[in-house]
Amino acid sequence: MDASLQPRAPAQWFGQPRGLVVLFLTEMWEKFSFYGMKALLIYYMIRHLQFTQADASLIYGAYTGGVYLTPIFGGYIADRWLGRRRAILIGGSLMALGHFTLAFESAFFPALLLIALGNGLFLPNLPSQVGDLYDEKDPRRGGSYNVYYVGVNLGALLAPLVCGTLGEVYGWHVGFGAAGIGMCVGLAIYMLGARHLPPDRPLPDERPTGTPVRLSAGSFLPLLLVALAVVVFRSGYEQSGNTLAVWAETGVDRTLGGSVVPVTWMQSLNPLFVFLFTPFVIAGWRRAAERGREPASLTKMSLGAAGVALSYLMLALLAATHGSAPVSMLWVVAFFVVYTLAELYILPVGLGLFARLAPKGMGATIIAAWFLASFGGNLLSGVVGRHLESLGAAGFFVVLGVITGASAAALFALRPMLRRVETPSAA
Asked: pTM of the prediction?
C-alpha cells in the first residue's frame, strides 16, 4: 500500500495522546484556582471574618464537602442532557464567577455556592474523558489517571505559593482574584485544545433504541461499600488543609534563614511530593505488572489508607513529646513524605477503579459517585475538626490515625467482593 494512504497514528506528546496533555493542563489550572482559594479560606474566616476556629472548621468542611456533592447531579445532567464539553464550559465559568465574587465580603456565602455549583458540572466530566483517549487494551491506559493526577497536584502546588502569597501580602481579595484568573486560563486551554479530545458520547435521545444503560447490582454494591470506606478515610485525610493548617500556624517553627516561611506555603508540600513521587510509583507498579505481581486496586487503596494513619500517628507522637514548644519544619516535611506516598496508593487508584467499572454512557455519573464519597468525607471532616482544641493536638492526631486506620481495614476486607467484578486480575 502507498505510504501516503496508510492511516496516521494518533498525534502524541510525551508518549501520550495530545488530549491527555490538554486535560492535564486544564485540570492543572482548575486546581490552581480551587486550591488557591482553599489555601486562604480557613485563615480568611478566622483572621478577617472573625469566625471562631470551631465554626471556621465546620464551614470549611461544609464547603469542601459541598464541592463534592454537586458532581453527582452535574455528572447526571451531563450524561443526560448537556454533554461533557458544555458542562465543563458552563461549570468553569460559574467557578470563575464565584472566585471573583469573593471580593465582596457580604457575598461570601453566595460565592461559595457559585463555586460549588460550577464544580459540580466541571469535576466529573473532565476526568471521564481520560479513558476515552485510549483503546481498551492500550497498556498506557492503567497509569493514565496517575498522570492526570499529577496535573491536579501541579496546580495544587502552585496555588498556595501564588494565591497564598498574594493573599497574605497584598490582601485576601487579590489572592482570590488570582484564583479566578487561573480558572479562566484553564477554560481557554480546554477550548483551544478541543480538537484533540474524544467526541462526546451520544446523549440518551441520540442513542439507538434498545440499548439501555444499566449498572448491575452486583457491580454497584462493591462500589458503594468502597465509597463508604473512602468517606471514613477522607474525614481524616482532609484535615491537612483544615485543622493541620491551624495547628501549623502556632505549632511549627517556620523560621528559615532568619525569615518566617508563610504558613500557606506548607500546603504546597503535599502536591510537590505528588509531582516528585508519581513517576517512581507508576514505574514500580509497571515492573510488578510485568512479573504478574501488581497489587489489586483495593490492596493498593488499603495500603494507602494505612500509610496516612501512620503519618498522623507520627504527628501525635511529635505533639506529645514537644508539648507547647513548636516542632521543626523538617518533621512536617517528613509527615508529608509519608502522607503523600500513601495518598498515591488510594486517591488516583480509586478514581481509576470507578472509571474502569462504569458502564458506557454512565462515565460521568459513576465518577460523580466517587466524588460523592469525597462529599461525605469532607463534610464529616468539618465535624471531626471541631474537636482540635478540646482534644489537644496530640489527642486529635491520634483520633485521625484511628479513623484512617479503620478505613484501611475496611478496604482490605472488601477485596474478595470486588475481585468478582473487577476486570483486571487481582493480586
From this structure: 0.72
